[in-house]
Amino acid sequence: MYRYTDFDAAFVAERNAQFRAQVERRIDGSLTEDEFKPLRLMNGLYLQLHAYMLRVAIPYGTLSSAQMRQLAYIAERWDKGYGHFTTRQNIQFNWPQLRDVPDMLDALAEVQMHAIQTSGNTIRNVTADHFAGAAADEIADPRPVAELIRQWSTDHPEFQFLPRKFKIAVTGSPNDRAVTKAHDIGLRMVRNDAGEPGFEVIVGGGLGRTPMIGKVVRDFLPEADLLPYLEAVVSVWNLLGRRDNKYKSRIKITVHEHGIDDIRARVEERFALLRPAFIGVDQQLFAQIKPDFAPPAFKDRDTAPFDQAYSNDPVFRSWADTNLSAHRAPGHAIAQISLKAHGATPGDATADQMRVMADLAERYGYDELRISHEQNVVLPHVHKADLPAIHAALKAAGLATANIGKISDIIACPGMDYCALATARSIPIAQEIATRFDQLKLEHEVGDLKIKISGCINACGHHHVGHIGILGLDRAGVENYQITLGGDHTETAAIGQRTGPGFSADEIVPAIERIVDTYLSERDSADEAFIDTFRRVGMTPFKTALYGESDKKQKAA
Amino acid sequence: MPAIFTPKVITANALLEGDVVYLTQDDTWSRHLKDADVLTDEADAQIRLIDASARTSEVVGVYLADVSADAKGPKPTHFREAFRMRGPSNYPHGKQSEVF
Ligand code: SF4
After folding, report:
1. Looking at the domain assignment, is residue A1 inside a domain?
2. No. of H helices and E strands in chain A?
3. CATH number, position A506
4. A346 DSSP assignment
5. Are A181 and A310 within one domain?
6. Contacts of residue B91 in chain A, CB cutoff 8 Å?
7. A251 and A164 in a common domain
8. Atom of ligand 1 nearest to the CA of A418
9. Is A405 within the bounds of a domain?
């Protein structure tokens, strides 16, 4: 894992000391809120509906057990005993008091964490495949690249006042688990015909008000050219980006307005100028970073305990079938810990649960944890022989829900239960859907199905790329939920299509049930997943199920 | 004809704790909507808003929120204000227990 250098530690300590003084000056009245607000946002501190909220960066979703334990400590000491893991692989504390925040930041710095650049018009926390360094399908670990980008972008003088926020995601696998096509820049690690490592560079993706699937701006960028090329992209947008209209300021609009060919030409021109200025320091840095992410020394052991539990214990078997993924090392697995117990708040973990997960990582998981953008926790490296013990410990902590990728593994943003920007709630909708399908005992019959819920058009809940997307709106003072179908967050990314008029809070769960029933009756076999059935049969049967025949006839007429 | 002025309360978030507060008749901040001064005159509401907004060492984000008022006191007319009054729906971490 990457460790702070003395420079990093001093930088964070200085920022924290500055912020402590700024908080004091705000409280004693020498700073107004207008002066203070940009300062607190630079340090990840928001004011939400009921309280302040501190957003802490978890770079590329990677945590050590000591860091997870410190998050538990912070949750207990200064919050209400829990934390909320987000779709940006961050953690949010929902109830800090202003006076305590400098202490919370110091506590984070003790474990090499901070909240810098989790807000504002800067390059945000770089996200990566949560299976990085572990996945069987991986070409290379994307995290050294993510760390290189993090170091280059943090406090980069040219990029502190961008037209808008800027998000970069990196994946090292052909199977895209990092939603690279919905980021300002998505990087896919590839190899060219000569076998040399490089990147496919995707720009202009994004969700929100105007969802766009990113476009390939460079098929193959040699690895050594990464930073000058990224700098070229960001600086082209920094000049062209619409600062006059915040709805048009993201790079997706710039790409849309100018066209990908024009953007490509400008980027290449700028890149040609910048390239010589990068004299190899970046490559030295990259070489220094890489060993921090060296894979652990995987042990070769007998998997008999796993095989035995798998054949004898149906609860374990169900969990193993659902929550484990293929690992690159023999005898190992990637285990996902669901933070989606039926009826619970998606992405929330109590301090006790955080400590259980930290202990398991330390004891069985080479001291590593990951946060997925799907708001679950991952033990990326575990030996199969240890899985029965891991499962038992998770079960005792209420963390053994066997639902990864299933209908109750719902992404939900905080919505109007917390978020000041929300137009409707999302958490209760997620809770009700999960509870309902658990009652119906249909979850495993339905199979892979991603529901994603956002409480406003900003789309933090990724609803556009959910197989079923739900968007909460305010329609004349009443919560109303719009449904989209057919979204896809993977390498075959697609934006979902709207079914039609939205549903009230009371109607939305029955509406989702009708969609699922339609899928079950339309699928050609139990092997055909929801998204494949939708692609084959199209919107019509789902529309009919939602709105009845008459609506269809009216539309056809 | 000018639009009819719907009753309003002045609300904000407390600077130190961040929680929702309402302006009372004697210009203190209360955590409870029931204590809020219901403003029925537009000119009066605007002046009270300007004065309250100036109290930046106590509160953040001062604004007027619509309410309906009867003998039992003010009630939020929009669901957002109802949630602000009660707290989140997933945990009893807000004011739920105190309100009812
Ligand atoms: S989607 Fe909207 S409601 Fe949900 S967290 Fe983002 S800004 Fe808030």
Report:
1. no
2. 19, 21
3. 3.30.413.10
4. T
5. no
6. 80, 345
7. yes
8. 8
9. no
- Of A248, A270, A293, the last residue of a domain is A293
Cα A353 to Cα A85: distance, rounded to the nearest angstrom: 13
Question: What pLDDT is attached to residue A281?
Answer: 86
Shared domain for A240 and A360, answered yes or no, is no
List, for residues B16-43, the tens digit of each pLDDT value: 999 999 999 999 999 999 999 999 999 9
Q: H-type helices in A290-350, by residue range? A: 304-312, 314-323
Inter-chain CB proximity B91 and A345 less than 8 Å: yes
Phi-psi map region of A114: left, alpha, beta (phi>0 left; psi -120 to 50 alpha): beta
B36-92, pLDDT tens digit by residue?
Answer: 999 999 999 999 999 999 999 999 999 999 999 888 889 999 999 999 999 999 998
> Which residue from B minimizes the CA distance to A47?
B18
Count of other CB atoms within 10 angstroms of residue A360: 25
Residue A17 is classified by DSSP as H
Give chain A's domain count. 4
Distance separating alpha carbons of residues B87 and B94, to the nearest angstrom:
4
Same domain, A175 and A209: yes
Domain termination site, one of A293, A325, A340: A293
Q: What is the pTM of this model?
A: 0.94
ipTM comes to: 0.93
The residue ranges of DSSP E strands in A109-204, in sequence order, are: 127-128, 168-171, 185-191, 197-203
Whether residue A554 is predicted with pLDDT greater than 60 in this model: the reply is no
Query: Which CATH number covers residue A32?
Result: 3.90.480.20
Average pLDDT over residues A307-330: 97
Regarding whether A159 and A72 lie in a shared domain, the answer is no
Q: Which of A477, A419, A481, A485 is nearest to A451 (CA)?
A: A485
Q: Under an 8 Å CB criterion, which residues of B touch A?
A: 13, 15-20, 56-57, 60-61, 77-80, 83-84, 87-91, 93-94
Question: Domain residues for A81?
Answer: 6-110
